[in-house]
Amino acid sequence: MNPKLRLGAAALLALALAVTAPAGATSASVRAADPPSPSERGAAVATAQRVIAAGRPQLLAADQDAFSLASSVPGVNGIQHLTYARTHAGLPVYGGEVVVTTDRSGRAVSAVGTGQQAVIALDTKPRIGAQEAAETARAAAPKADAAGTPALVVHAATATPRLAWEVVAGAADGSSILHVYVDAQDGQVLDQWDQVVDGTGNSYYNGNPVTIDTSPSYVMRDPTRTGIQCGGQNGAVYSKSTDSWGNGSGTNLETACVDALFAAQRQWNMLRDWLGRNGVNGSGRGYPARVGLNQANAFWNGSYASFGRNSAGTQQATSMDVVAHEFGHGVFQFSGGSGGSGNEAGGLNESTGDIFGALTEAYVNEPATLDPPDYLVGEEVNLVGRGAIRNMYNPSALGHPNCYSSSIPSTEVHAAAGPQNHWFYLLAEGTNPSGKPASSRCDGGAAITGVGVRKAGQIFMTGLNMKTAPWTHAKARVATLRAARTLFSGCVEFNVVKAAWSGVNVPAQSGEPTCP
């Protein structure tokens, strides 16, 4: 969970096209499972293609721009989120993705968004060679042991699109996979972001014994949830001659895998049952866990999660909320478009991990003797000897900002998680929930009655699927308000979303939806 990913902020271009918006479902009818049929998916693709073709001026599309479907992810009530990659003269455009959201039938569009801020108009012939770009990238990535082959792209995540070489420089131990963008005309580093984001068995955290799903022949690989498995730092999956795992000790790595699998499998079920999502990537895939990292840390590196131990060396960092946090970074990665670069988007990414930790704890709802839902992050791991590492109902209790301000884009990413974490608590639980901690508004506004953690998760997930680069608090406000209008009839949930954002000092935005 170290501050590895540096993501950033820019204005949202979102267009409300003259098509029918999806009808809001009643609160009682909101459901998570039952994904769209093949014909409904086909209808969504056809609609998206028509909308993109009609909306090219609003999407800042040049004549040489083309769009291709990169992912299609269903959500609550079968809402469909289609992300289209953009190319310009055949070159990939970083930051130019377009996200189209339709209803279940695929015939109605509620929102179309792109983070690109200007029409691309540039010379696609580089002045700087690939080798020079690779050397520049290596110099910008001190942890890297090797750099991949540079790829020519258009970097469009800032105000002026630029021709760039994208170079991926990685560390052999998996602790850094840095994407460096080198201007192909003047050789300067334009941007960079790190793909690594900090962050029956005998369990240490979840009681004994617990049930985990493993493969025949006694391998710690989930037989039904594709991609979920656990082993050591070398990536090899643990196996043995019996199907009994771990000894319940805080220092035993097999026990750490019991806890990691237990959490990852329950998070998968929560995504399915509460949020209508099929796996971490939304398309039926999860990712491995590796334990035994010799650091007081845990991180997600884009293809697996790695878990270390606390600073005292007495416990592995595999509590439910920490495991769900790291795989929550994967949900962020595979939702909507790219996040962009800079600390504001990095803080939203860290907060996303915390929110998925809270949702998983609430879904499992373990008894008070274990780890009940509490909106604290990592308190059981005691990572550096001071208990929780973040507090969602009162981030300032741990020195993090409760409220959004102009300083957030320059705030360290874990601290910058504070405003959205606080927003989620106000949305889910309100200002004075029964049996849970009170949480004050930053703006001194009226008391808020929360919508409940499950509804809050559905609104958050639906908004996250509208993500475009660079992701900002302002854009998250607009997306979650759209989500509430799409998911629920009436204005109750919408008004709580709005009040919660105002309650953390994220004000009304131009073009945000209203609820009559």
TrEMBL record:
InterPro entries: FTP_domain (IPR011096), Peptidase_M4 (IPR023612), Peptidase_M4/M1_CTD_sf (IPR027268), Peptidase_M4_C_domain (IPR001570), Peptidase_M4_domain (IPR013856), Zinc_Metalloprotease_M4 (IPR050728)
Domain Peptidase M4: 199-333
Keywords assigned: Hydrolase, Metal-binding, Metalloprotease, Protease, Secreted, Signal, Zinc
Protein name (Swiss-Prot/TrEMBL): Neutral metalloproteinase
Cofactor requirement: Zn(2+)
Domain of life, source organism: Bacteria
Limits of the FTP domain: 73-113
